[in-house]
Structures are given as C-alpha cells and as structure tokens.
Design brief:
Pfam family, one: Mannitol_dh
Mean pLDDT: 97
Protein name: Mannitol dehydrogenase family protein
CATH architecture of the largest domain: 3-Layer(aba) Sandwich
Structural class: alpha/beta
Radius of gyration: 22 Å
Organism: Rhodovulum sulfidophilum
Keywords: NAD, Oxidoreductase
Number of strands: 12
Bound molecules: 1,4-dihydronicotinamide adenine dinucleotide, D-mannonic acid
Strand content: 5-15%
Helix content: 40-55%
Number of domains: 2
CATH topology of the largest domain: Rossmann fold
C-alpha cells in the first residue's frame, strides 16, 4: 500500500518554487516541506525542470504524490510526499505564475550556473542565446532573470532565491551571475534585484544516488507499487541556510533546518569532509577497480587512507557551532559504507572539474599556505588527471561525463612526462594558482601520476597501502 499522507495536497498554496526537480530535491527538500505540511503548514512547491528529465506527465499521472524510501541497513522507512504540488518542464516553465512565490530554491547541478568553474562571474558564452532573446530563455539564469523582470514590471513583492547546489558560496555565485546577466538583458533589473532579492547561501546534505532499475524495484516493492517519481535515499538529512531572506519564508526551522548567520564553516565542513571523501573515493576507488562508493568505503586499504585524508582535511576547517569534526568525519565514512545505497563512483566523478575545486583544491592550497603537506589531495588530483574524459560506463551502464573531459583526454595524450603534465594540469584556471607554484605539490602529484599510470588496480591499491603504512610508521 502507498504510504498515506496526513494532509490534503489540494489545500496547500503555491508559495515556494524549486528549479531542478531531480532525485535530490524529491528526497531531501520535499521531506522538509512534507514535515511542515504534516504540522498544518500551507507551503506547497511548484517544481520547474528546464532540462531533462521531463517529469510533468509522470507527476500528473500520480497526482503529484510519490514515495521516498530511506534505508541504512538497520532502519527502513517509506514516506509519502504530497508537497510537490505542480511540476513544469521546459515547455510550460514560462507559464508558471511567480507572483505568489516568496521563496525559491535551486539544485540545477554544479555546472548549471553559466559560470566557469572556480569563478563567480557569468560566462557570456553560456548565455549568448538567452541574451539574444531574453524573453525566451533556455538557461536557468536567463529564466530566473526573466521571471524577476516580469515581477519587477508588475510591481511585485521581494523574493528569496536560495541556491542549494554543492558549489562554493552558492548564494554569492547565484547573486553574482544573475546580476551580471540582468545588467546585459534588462537595464532596470539589477537595481531592483539589489532592493528586492535575497540570495542566502545554503548547505544541503543527503546522499541520493540516481535511481537505477534495481533501486526502483526496491522502492516499488517496499512502498506500494509503481512510482515514477519515487526515490531511494539514506536516512541522514541536513539543511543549513544563511539567515538572509527578502520576504516571507517557510518556517523551515520547525522541521529541523538550521538558520545561521555564518554559513561558511558548515559549507566547508560538508564539502571537504563528506563530499571530499566521496570525490577522493571516486578517483582512487575507480583506479583500484571499485564501482560504488560503498565498495570503496568498505575496502580496508581505502578506509585507512580515509582516516589520514579526513584528518588532513579537518585541519583546514573551523568547527561550526554544535559540530565535532572528528565525529563528523567518522559519520561521513559510515554513511558511505551504507550497504543499501549503491552510489556509482562514475556518477560522483561526473563534473569533477566543478567539484574538486571546493572539495580538494581549496583545502590543499590552504594547507600549503600554512607550510603543511598536501600529498593526499595531490593523489586525488592525479587520479582525476588520469581518468577525466574516460566515458566508459561501469557494469551498471553509468558513464562519467565532465565538461573538461575531452580537453583532459587531449592533454593526457600529448603529455611527455609526469612532472610536465602535473604542472600543466595545475596551471588550469580551475585551481588556486598556489598549487602549481608549489614545487613540493607538483612533485607529489607527479609521483602519483607515475604510480597510478602504471600497473593494474591491485598494484595501485598496494601502492596506496604502502603509503598509508609509511605514514602510520612516520
Ligand atoms: P539529477 O540528475 O537527479 O537532477 C538534476 C536536476 O538538475 C534536474 O532537475 C535537471 O533538470 C537540472 N539541471 C541539470 N542541468 C541543468 C542546467 N544546466 N540548467 C538547469 N537545470 C539543470 O541530480 P540530483 O541528484 O537531483 O542532484 C542535483 C544537484 O543537487 C547536484 O548536482 C548537487 O549540486 C545537489 N545535491 C545533490 C545531492 C545528491 O546526493 N544527489 C546531495 C546534495 C546536493
Ligand atoms: C556527490 C554528492 O555526486 C556527488 O558529487 O558527492 O551529490 C553527495 O552525494 C551529496 O552532496 C550528499 O549530500
């Protein structure tokens, strides 16, 4: 039987919007809105997808109600969700009535912001088509700007736009690219944005792998049958949002969301410990022959390596109030060991050129600036440099794609020696310049490029094992 709702979706009002209704949003943010609706709140969410997957037909076919299955091997629960009260694909997105929306969130992936990785500025090439026809936009930035411009022309109310993607300082990024775009597309809009739009930075957390045939079968067996919108996720969830709002907002704190004045320590902790470890496993795990983050996290050699890595990453962090970095690192590793969540390393490795800067390169640069070694981080970047552009799917059919993939394949094919290749990769504008200027870091990366380029997965794993033992005995 489908999990029952304790509220009537038809009684909710379209007060919130979300751009990028992927697996994550359906499993995470919707669970908070669902908590509020169960407690009698009236916030419903209008979802908008500007790129595939097109879900509007599936949403209509099941009256917008779907299930989330959470499981950690010990506790398994099905929750019915009815707070996604509308869903629009690219075709009907321009018709969405934004006039009553006070609070909108985004998870449009790291590369959806029309910027270059490592920069907070708009990439004009990414929005050229929208700038030529700003009232028929196709990008998320062009779309939001057009919705704001319509609101401005209608004398509309202030609004909060909260980016929830795993990018550095996501509120500043969204505000920055939107203002840049608005200045080119709609002359009156930048001033209006300054007076009427808040861009809080936000940290969201729940591991939600893309649905596969087997996770869909598990969900449907556990939660009452066919469900095209249903998602499987881990039980853990966290949402921390900067206290910066332009108007009415859902009382998210009543559902456990933390509202804080300084988000940076929370964001850095999550990007560097949890996400950093996921990306490290994506690179080193694949080199050692693993396919899922569970396989990598339960490999004793890689979990010993993780102990060193988490300590080194934690040394770059300020501990957020109420957290304990050692416990957070331990929990991160345990979450990746969850036997019920199959998270393909190829999925995590996708778009790594947009992920590694905040997860690996920034902490590496901070360590070097303090005179501390950053060899663990160099190992991860070496793994990326050797694998970026390899789009071969894993045994479940999941490929890795990265906007830098083709360029990296070309550079790798032309590389003459490991030291030169390390210098070249570290010279890319993705990373803090300090990495390529530090002779020790370049040498560390070159050493691991040589080590990983040779041998088979078993030999690479043995090299990592030797390294961990050397460190333990040092
Ligand atoms: P997904 O692949 O299920 O969905 C991606 C969503 O982003 C889709 O709705 C798609 O329409 C939209 N999108 C993709 N490219 C876009 C573009 N260029 N412009 C506009 N919209 C675009 O992925 P999922 O799992 O929902 O993750 C999305 C993002 O959420 C991640 O990239 C990450 O930043 C964030 N996130 C994901 C977590 C997870 O475990 N899946 C956890 C925490 C954050
Ligand atoms: C993962 C994240 O695919 C990835 O890049 O590292 O989506 C991760 O699962 C989430 O950030 C967990 O909150």
């Amino acid at each position: 039987m489908k999990p029952a709702l304790t509220y009537t979706p038809g009684a909710l009002r379209p007060r919130a919007a979300h751009l990028g209704v992927g697996a994550f949003h359906r499993a995470h943010q919707q669970s908070y809105y669902d908590d509020l609706a169960r407690a009698g709140g009236d916030w419903g969410v209008v979802g908008i997808n500007l790129t595939p997957p097109d879900l509007a037909a599936a949403h209509a076919a099941q009256d917008g109600i779907y299930a989330v299955l959470t499981d950690d091997g010990q506790t398994r629960a099905c929750r019915g969700i009815g707070t996604l009260i509308g869903l629009h694909d690219a075709r009907s997105a321009p018709d969405v009535d934004w006039s009553g929306i006070d609070f909108a969130t985004l998870t449009i992936t790291e590369k959806g912001y029309c910027h270059r990785s490592g920069s907070f500025e708009l990439d004009p090439a990414a929005v050229a088509a929208d700038l030529a026809a700003p009232e028929a936009p196709v990008t998320a930035i062009g779309y939001l700007a057009w919705m704001l411009e319509r609101r401005r022309r209608a004398g509309g109310e202030p609004i909060t736009l909260a980016s929830c993607d795993n990018v550095a300082d996501n509120g500043r990024l969204l505000g920055g690219v939107l203002r840049d775009y608005a200045a080119r597309a709609f002359p009156g809009l930048p001033d209006w944005i300054d007076r009427n739009v808040a861009f809080p930075t936000s940290m969201v957390d729940r591991i939600v792998p893309a649905m596969s045939a087997s996770s869909r079968a598990r969900l449907e067996a556990a939660c009452g049958g066919p469900d095209a919108l249903g998602v499987v996720a881990e039980p853990f969830r966290q949402w921390v949002i900067e206290n910066r709002f332009a108007g009415p907002r859902p009382a998210l704190e009543r559902a456990g969301v933390q509202i804080v004045d300084d988000l940076a320590p929370h964001e850095h902790m999550k990007h560097r410990l949890l996400n950093g470890l996921q990306s490290a496993y994506a690179e080193l795990g694949r080199l050692c022959g693993h396919e899922s983050s569970h396989d990598a996290a339960t490999d004793p050699v890689l979990s010993d390596w993780a102990g060193l890595f988490l300590r080194a990453q934690a040394e770059t962090l300020a501990c957020p109030e109420g957290e304990d970095l050692t416990a957070y690192g331990r929990t991160s590793l345990a979450r990746l060991q969850n036997p019920t969540i199959h998270h393909p390393l190829n999925q995590i490795a996708s778009d790594a050129s947009f992920k590694l800067p905040q997860r690996i390169a920034a902490p590496a640069a901070e360590r070097l600036a303090r005179g501390a070694p950053a060899e663990l981080q160099a190992m991860v970047l070496a793994g990326w440099a050797l694998q970026a552009g390899d789009t071969r799917p894993d045994s479940t059919g999941v490929p890795t794609r990265d906007p830098m993939g083709e360029e990296m394949s070309r550079r790798r094919a032309a590389a003459r020696d490991a030291a030169g290749f390390a210098r070249e990769v570290l010279g890319l504008p993705l990373w803090p310049a300090r990495l390529g200027q530090d002779a020790g870091f370049v040498a560390d990366m070159a050493r691991w490029l040589r080590a990983f380029a040779q041998g088979d997965p078993r030999q690479r794993r043995a090299q990592i094992d030797d390294f961990v033992r050397e460190r333990a005995n040092a």
